[in-house]
Amino acid sequence: MRLTPDEWVFWEYGFIKLNATIVFTWALMAVLVLGAALITRRLATGHQRSRWQNLLEIVVTAIMGQIKDVGLQNPRRYVGFLGTLFLFVAAAALATVIPGYEPPTASLSTTTALALCVLVAVPLFGISGEGLKAYLKSYVQPTPIMLPFNLISEVSRTLALAVRLFGNMMSGAMIIAILLSITPFVFPIVMTLLGLLTGMVQAYIFTILAAVYIAAATSSRTSKQSAA
Fold it and tell me: Which residues pair with residue 17 across a beta bridge?
């Protein structure tokens, strides 16, 4: 029984390893890119629209609504990044119904990479929204003594994002594997459905937390716009 897809090695040469985490990650990204290209190649503006376009509009509208509810006033500015995070984590969980597939989010390396994306995106959005000087000034507010604590919080929340998603996804995969070895007919089906639900919830939580961090980084500008 594998704890993570990192242990499933397809090819190895010296210190270079091609494991299941890398293979399934790139396969998942290829499917998402191909699906997006196929769905958006013939978008319609009239009443006659394809089912895939309707589904895409529902998903995008829902994501933008959640972004706005968090406190970000211009959802279109953030939907590309946050929407991609949500779709990747959600698709990684939904694809567990495919035999032989293991979600790359059950690897700490994948969840760490996603958390690092958030770590980089937060200051980028903050600087582009408030300016470099105003954003850096937020680290020493309300007093310069808070500087080390604010820096520690940046690192700790990134670690928390990675570990939380990794733990929840890996535990779900482990439970299904254990039940499959004990009762190979009934319980795995129920747990697979529960795992799909859990995966969607984790995708939602991860995306919302990323949106909250970005909202905190752009809070000064948002407050000024609200006051105006």
Answer: 12
| Cα maximum dimension of the chain | 63
User: Rounded to an integer, what distance in angstroms lies between the CA atom of residue 213 and that of residue 222?
Assistant: 13
Q: What is the pTM of this model?
A: 0.81
Q: How do residues 31-88 score in pLDDT, each as one tens digit?
A: 999 998 988 888 887 777 888 888 888 889 999 999 988 888 888 899 999 999 999 9
Domain count, the chain: 1
Q: Where are the beta strands (DSSP E) in the chain?
A: 9-13, 16-19
Instruction: Write the DSSP string, 105-149.
Output: GGSHHHHHHHHHHHHHHHHHHHHHHH-HHHHHHGGG-S-GGGHHH
**Euclidean distance between CA atoms 203 and 81, whole angstroms:** 13
The Cα 167–Cα 182 span in angstroms is 22
What residues make up the domain containing 177?
5-227
